Amino acid sequence: MRLRQIEVFHAVYSSGSMTNAAALLNVSQPSVSKVLAHAEQQLGYRLFDRVKGKLIPTPEAHQLYKHVREVYDDVDRLRHVAANLKATSAGRIRVAGTPAFGLEVLPRAISTFRDEHPDAIFEVETLHHDEIYGALHESRIDIGLAFDAPEQPGIRRKKIARGDFLVLAPDRRTFGRKPSLSVNDIKDRPFIGLNSRGPLGKALSDYLEAAGVEPNIVAWTETYHIAKALAASGAGVTIADEITARSITGGDVVMYPLKPPVRFDITMLQLAETPLSLAAKRFTRHLGRLIKELLND
């Protein structure tokens, strides 16, 4: 089957009629009928039977559609990639980060970068890890920023900094002036727990499990900034990544190093076979410097 025949068959099968298919494809009904007839002639069997004025897919059509849908989805992705490549050639810098980076780090980096490069135009997204990989493969973004990003075919990873988990408390009265805390110091305190689906959440969950500690959970959240805000409001204590802990969002908290420490990598992601534009390369260097400065404060 030719691509146009696949497109017409998909439209007729999914919409249920020639008229609806013609409207979806923005062509005339006779044109749809003609392409479908040619497809049936080449295939050597009927794809639809007309019963009481309705088109009923044949058993062969049902089997064929399973494969046509995969091809059609691939073609649809190709259209998105083609459109996204056009945006790249227009000189835009398209970047996505996980939520911990999206609330402060990326906005600050973009603002200070544009102080030096006022012509730079950005597209910014906040995505979870798996969504960042998908956006890179679709050429929807040029740069991804994530914690402990796992290896994936076709994606280049570059470690730009290392950070630590910190214990966050609402004030000094909670733990006094201890220079650092162990998990035993927090096991009986009201604790804001974090979802363990992401790389950092899993690392923290494994750390607590290895220490044999079951925190006194009073709230669960999937977002580190919300955990920080809950700690700042006095709801309990939490353990969060250093980027979130040192950000100005989420309220005031007291930070304590965790002993023994739990460290994580901050990783820049890009397509392995697609070079970055000159502007994007400059921005990655600028972003790396800003993150290192934040962690060294």
Could you say what the CATH architecture of the largest domain is?
A: 3-Layer(aba) Sandwich
Q: Which structural category do the helix and sheet elements fall into? A: alpha/beta
Domain count: the total is 3
What is the number of helices? 12
Total E-strand runs: 11
Helix content: 40-55%
How are helices and strands ordered from N to C?
HHHEEHEHHEHEEHEHEHEHEEH
CATH topology of the largest domain: D-Maltodextrin-Binding Protein, domain 2
As a percent range, the share of strand residues is 15-25%
Report the mean per-residue pLDDT as an integer: 88
- CATH first level of the largest domain: which class? Alpha Beta
Which descriptor suits the 3D outline? elongated
* Low-confidence segments: none
The biggest sheet, with number of strands, parallel, antiparallel or mixed sense and barrel status, is: 7 strands, mixed
Description:
It is a single chain. This protein has 297 residues and is of the alpha/beta class. It folds into three domains: 85 residues, Orthogonal Bundle (Arc Repressor Mutant, subunit A); 100 residues, D-Maltodextrin-Binding Protein, domain 2 (3-Layer(aba) Sandwich), CATH 3.40.190; 104 residues, D-Maltodextrin-Binding Protein, domain 2 (3-Layer(aba) Sandwich), CATH 3.40.190. Helices cover 47% and strands 23% of the residues. It has twelve helices and eleven strands. Strands 3, 4, 5, 6, 9, 10 and 11 form a seven-stranded mixed beta sheet that branches. Strands 1-2 form a two-stranded antiparallel ribbon. Strands 7-8 form a two-stranded parallel ribbon. β1 and β2 form a beta hairpin. α1 packs across α3, α1 packs across α4 and α2 packs across α3. The protein starts with a helix and ends with a helix. 30% of the residues are buried. The mean pLDDT is 88.
